[in-house]
């Protein structure tokens, strides 16, 4: 009876972390790095199923955020010799954040959260009906 609640709860937690990471990426999208330093690197959320062993230990089924990794590719280089972070050639390294992809990730996270909230509400209604059956 409580497996549905645990599963939806784990998915709500994963969706929350997904949206937090996307929000952090958006907040750092326009950041630049001083010459010789690495600019902000976009973070990615990697989710996985909670293993049967973890389920046996915690009693929780569902998904979890197994890793938050950095995307090391596609650092943006822009020619702007007047920028304080420009190197000797006049290029500035900016974060590798794609705003379209991040806004899409936010919408996916929001839909994930909404779907699991609906599942929790449906589970609550089923539990209420179970209690009504027990009264008869």
From TrEMBL:
Residues 5-30 form the Flagellar basal body rod protein N-terminal domain. The keyword Glycosyltransferase does not apply. Keywords: Bacterial flagellum, Cell projection, Cilium, Flagellum. Coiled coil: none annotated. The keyword Transmembrane does not apply. It is found in: Bacterial flagellum basal body. Residues 89-129 form the Flagellar basal-body/hook protein C-terminal domain. It holds the Pfam family Flg_bbr_C. Its main location: other. One of its GO terms (biological process) is bacterial-type flagellum-dependent swarming motility. Belongs to the flagella basal body rod proteins family. PANTHER family: FLAGELLAR BASAL-BODY ROD PROTEIN FLGC, FLAGELLAR PROTEIN. The basal body constitutes a major portion of the flagellar organelle and consists of four rings (L,P,S, and M) mounted on a central rod. The rod consists of about 26 subunits of FlgG in the distal portion, and FlgB, FlgC and FlgF are thought to build up the proximal portion of the rod with about 6 subunits each. This is Flagellar basal-body rod protein FlgC. It comes from Listeria seeligeri. The gene is flgC.
């Amino acid at each position: 009876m409580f497996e549905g609640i645990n599963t939806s709860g784990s998915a709500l937690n994963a969706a929350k972390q997904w949206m937090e990471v996307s929000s952090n990426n958006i907040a750092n999208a326009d950041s630049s790095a001083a010459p010789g330093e690495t600019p902000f690197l976009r973070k990615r959320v990697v989710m996985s199923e909670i293993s049967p062993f973890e389920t046996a230990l915690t009693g929780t089924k569902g998904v979890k955020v197994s890793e938050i990794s950095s995307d090391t590719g596609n650092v943006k280089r822009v020619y702007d010799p007047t920028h304080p972070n420009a190197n000797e050639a006049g290029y500035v390294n900016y974060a590798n954040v794609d705003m379209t992809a991040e806004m899409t990730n936010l919408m996916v996270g929001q839909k994930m959260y909404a779907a699991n909230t609906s599942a929790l509400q449906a589970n609550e209604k089923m539990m209420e009906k179970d209690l009504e059956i027990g009264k008869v």
